[in-house]
Design brief:
Rossmann fold, 2 domains, 10-stranded mixed beta sheet, 10 strands
Length: 295
């Protein structure tokens, strides 16, 4: 059974992420992690010491801390309840920190999660690009598959569109789909090469055949045009009513992802549907330097 780490902040996109995770991964086990801003400390209230007695400051900070901690527990409990209602086995994890993505990566490692799930901040592409710092940071640094879900996603009945370019990274993404996604899902392979329809058809069919060898129900689809790979994938996803997009990613770290991860990054920041990104090297048989991104 797939083990998930779900980042939960009480937002609409976080709730949507739980529902999408259940639909894509089936009745998985999950750690629902909430990372809350740290509560105040007596030391941080030092500026008030000139005007207030220490006892008053301590009492006030204690009350503030209790309120912050209660709020954090309530959000965490709500996430666990949402996950359990959706049909996931869920347990809570509450952390206090100013950088949620770092804490989520730590919890994912500690819980040995097979994949990380999170929502995006904002409902449109501009808002997601500006506000989705946690999702963006996870995309750049995660060492395991990442499912990013925008707010407002409700229809997860369609197929999963897999971006395929013939690389080891693309095959690794399909292997993860075979091992981790619900076998009832239809996987559609799409070549991201747009140089000719003949190349598209051949590469797409190669991907679909590889997916079928993994016991996935898959068929090839192609699209014409000379737009960037991630825009082509978005167009194809809309054309075929896809519920989510699956892609591989070439590298980890801000530099590697900026230079090599343009397809995954473009999709995560612009797509109005869930995107599952599988980093290179997540499976033992893939080449850590290979990719499903643009050549």
């Amino acid at each position: 059974m797939t083990r998930l780490l779900i980042g939960y902040d009480g937002s609409e996109s976080a709730r949507a992420a739980i529902l999408v995770a259940r639909a894509l991964f089936g009745p998985a086990d999950a750690t629902v992690a909430h990372v809350h801003p740290p509560p105040p400390t007596v030391a941080s209230a030092g500026i008030a010491r000139a005007a207030l007695p220490q006892a008053v400051i301590t009492e006030g900070v204690t009350k503030l801390r209790a309120g912050v901690e209660a709020e954090a527990r309530a959000i965490t409990d709500a996430g666990v309840e949402c996950a359990r209602t959706a049909g996931l086995g869920a347990e809570p994890s509450l952390r206090f920190a100013l950088t949620p993505w770092r804490e989520l990566l730590e919890v994912a490692a500690e819980s040995d999660a097979d994949a990380i799930v999170c929502g995006t901040a904002g409902e449109g592409p501009i808002e997601r690009a500006v506000l989705g710092s946690t999702a963006s940071s996870l995309l750049y640094h995660a060492d395991r598959p990442l499912l990013v879900v925008p707010a407002g996603v409700t229809d997860v009945a369609g197929p999963v569109l897999a971006g395929y370019d013939g690389s080891d990274g693309a095959r690794g993404a399909l292997r993860f789909a075979a091992a981790g996604l619900s076998r009832s899902r239809l996987l559609v392979a799409h070549a991201v090469d747009s140089r000719s329809s003949e190349v598209n058809e051949a590469v797409a069919e190669e991907g679909a055949a590889f997916a079928r060898s993994l016991d996935l129900e898959a068929h090839a689809v192609t699209s014409s045009g000379h737009r960037s790979a991630w825009r082509t994938l978005l167009d194809s996803a809309g054309e075929h009513g896809a519920a989510a997009i699956l892609v591989g990613s070439r590298g980890r770290g801000a530099v590697a992802s900026t230079v090599l991860g343009s397809v995954a990054s473009g999709l995560v920041h612009a797509a109005a549907l869930p995107v599952l990104v599988v980093p290179a090297g997540c499976d033992d048989t893939s080449d850590a330097g290979a990719a499903a991104d643009e050549p």
